[in-house]
Amino acid sequence: MNRSTAYRRDLLAYGLGLLSALLLTAAAFALVQWPTFSTNGLLTGIYVLGLLQIIAHFRFFLHIGWTKSKREDLQLLLFSSLIILLMVAGTVAVLANLRMRMMP
Q1: pTM
Q2: Burial of 2 (0-12, 13-18, 19+ CB in 10 A)
Q3: Do residues 63 and 70 lie in contact, with contact meaning Cβ atoms separated by under 8 Å?
Q4: Three-class SS of residue 83?
Q5: Average pLDDT over residues 35-40
Q6: 49-58 b/e (C-beta count within 10 Å ≥ 16 → b)
Q7: Do 17 and 56 share a domain, yes or no?
Q8: Same domain (yes/no): 69, 103
Q9: Contact, 52 vs 24, CB < 8 A?
Q10: Are residues 73 and 91 part of one domain?
C-alpha cells in the first residue's frame, strides 16, 4: 500500500469519526431538547449514546480495534480504566463514611 492510499484511508476514518461524533452529540442534545420519553428512558438514551460515542472515539481517533495487534492496546486501556474506577469508588466510599461519622 502506498503512502497516498494510506493517507486517504486515514482521512476517511477521521472524517467518519468526526461525523459519527457530531451525530451522536446532536442526538443526545435532541433527546434533552424534545423530551418524548420518561426520565428513566431519557437517561438510558443518553447513557447509550454516550457509550456509542466512546466506542466511536476508540475506533476512529485512538485506532483501537479488535485485531490481534490492537488487542494489547485495548487491554491496557481497559485495565487503566479499571484502576481509575477503583480509585474513584474508593475515594467516594471513604468520603461517604466520613460524612456519615461527622453528621450527628
Answers
A1: 0.68
A2: exposed
A3: yes
A4: helix
A5: 87
A6: beebbeebeb
A7: yes
A8: yes
A9: yes
A10: yes
Q: pLDDT (tens digit, 9 = 90+) per residue, 41-52?
A: 999 999 999 999
The number of folded domains in the chain is 2
Residue 59 shares a structural domain with residue 81: no
pLDDT of residue 3: 82
Rounded CA separation 47/5 (Å): 37
- Are 80 and 32 part of one and the same domain? no
Report which secondary-structure segment, H or E, holds 42.
Answer: helix 39-56
16 lies in which domain range?
1-63
C-alpha angle 67/11/4, rounded to 5°?
Answer: 95
Q: 73 and 37, same structural domain?
A: no
